[in-house]
Amino acid sequence: MERNWLVLVGGGHAAGKKVVVADVTKNLVSLADDDFPIKVEIVHLRDYAQPGVYAPSSVDFERLRANLGKMNENNKQTVVIVEGLYALYDKELREKAIMKAFVDGDADTRLSRWILRDIGDDQSKLGDILSTYLNHARPEMNEFIHPTKEFADVILPRGSETSGVKLISTGIYERIKEEAMNLPSEHHHLLDTPKIDLRKESFVEQNQQFYDLN
């Protein structure tokens, strides 16, 4: 049987999206077993984005959707995670996703991470980074990226934390396993798959418990 499930992980610059994806991937693989194997494919939106454009128009969503539609894995349960600034922006992708997560974070913390990540030993880059942040990235965050937070099933307020990652991983695994057990035998393509019912009331309740713990 061939089956792919779409997961979206969005959030701001240097919010920790890649770390969250890596931790979710590790958790999903650990949950899988011989009877229900899972493979994870990670797609980075930056590979579909035009550098230097700080707006949704930078992303070629049409090409992304086309490539996602071609993804199939033989005899594997495959979770395809799309990660990037605008992962929650495209309506068609949101409608196909079984899980949508937004990695949030304090603006000063994100800027600090950005500086540490990109400056290295070259202090001369600091001015360029601050200019890019103040003139482009911060307005982009406020106008385009932050509003996509409302589409998320799960919001991680401080990046990759154990309870949040576990919530996402377990939610994905339980839902796809439940649906897979009732799948017809014909093959399915990623963007031909009806959206899985996440039992939102129960899921939101678990999400609130996560916030209460933090």
Automatic annotation (TrEMBL):
Domain Phosphoribulokinase/uridine kinase: 73-162
Domain of life: Eukaryota
SUPFAM superfamilies hit by this protein: P-loop containing nucleoside triphosphate hydrolases
Molecular function as annotated in GO: ATP binding; kinase activity
Identification of the protein by name: Phosphoribulokinase/uridine kinase domain-containing protein
Source species: Trichomonascus ciferrii
